[in-house]
Specification:
The protein contains seven helices and nine strands. With 197 residues, the protein is an alpha+beta fold.
Length: 197
């Protein structure tokens, strides 16, 4: 928990916050305070021994009339979470198998570089931007997606489902799909899985 006068805020941020994050977070705090809103920040602190710590901060301005007197809130150390996220990202980005996530309707939500390469795109971001309807843009036979989705709805997972995908240059590539449905609230929220050429 923290509470400190706003006149000390800038000095405090400048002394503790990583130099690359200072301007961004101070701008975000100022923007929130100008609208009388709480602020939420993720940034790095620099410890006395020089080590970096990732933190998440939420706070509000304390007002006296129209004047801001202080900032109050709490700061949580999320260093371990950030490190785990980085490890996961490295696995995701470096995987040999294509990895993906789609909505129930077939809109791409996530993809890794391996999937983009399998279907002929230069990057995962290009694939996600371009493929808004996997049923008609990616599956050579749209009925095959319907059959695959019915299997995953019936069984929760599908393994080694073989079909043809349409590459960016409109040629076909045979793929094997491992798919599962994700149901955080007992209803299918999205599909995710692996694809191999």
């Amino acid at each position: 928990l923290h509470s400190f006068p706003t006149r000390r805020s800038s000095d405090l941020y400048n002394s503790l916050v990583h130099p690359d994050d200072r301007q961004r977070i101070w701008d975000e705090v100022q923007g929130a305070l100008e609208q009388n809103l709480p602020y939420r920040l993720t940034y790095r602190l620099v410890a006395a021994d020089g080590r970096e710590k990732w933190v998440w901060e939420q706070g509000v301005g304390v007002y006296s009339g129209a004047e801001i007197e202080a900032l109050e809130g709490f700061i949580t150390d999320i260093t371990e979470l950030k490190e785990a996220e980085s490890r996961y990202r490295n696995i995701y980005e470096g995987a040999f198998e294509g990895m993906y996530r789609t909505t129930l309707q077939g809109r791409s939500l996530a993809a890794n570089p391996a999937l983009a390469k399998i279907v002929g795109y230069d990057s995962a971001q290009e694939f996600i931007t371009a493929i808004t309807d996997t049923t008609h843009q990616l599956w050579m036979e749209p009925d095959e997606r319907s059959r695959c989705m019915q299997l995953v709805e019936d069984h929760g997972v599908v393994r080694d489902f073989e079909c043809q995908f349409r590459r960016k240059d409109d040629t076909a590539v045979w793929v094997s799909i491992n798919l599962r449905k994700v149901c955080p609230d007992e209803q299918t929220a999205y599909y995710e899985g692996f694809i191999e050429d």
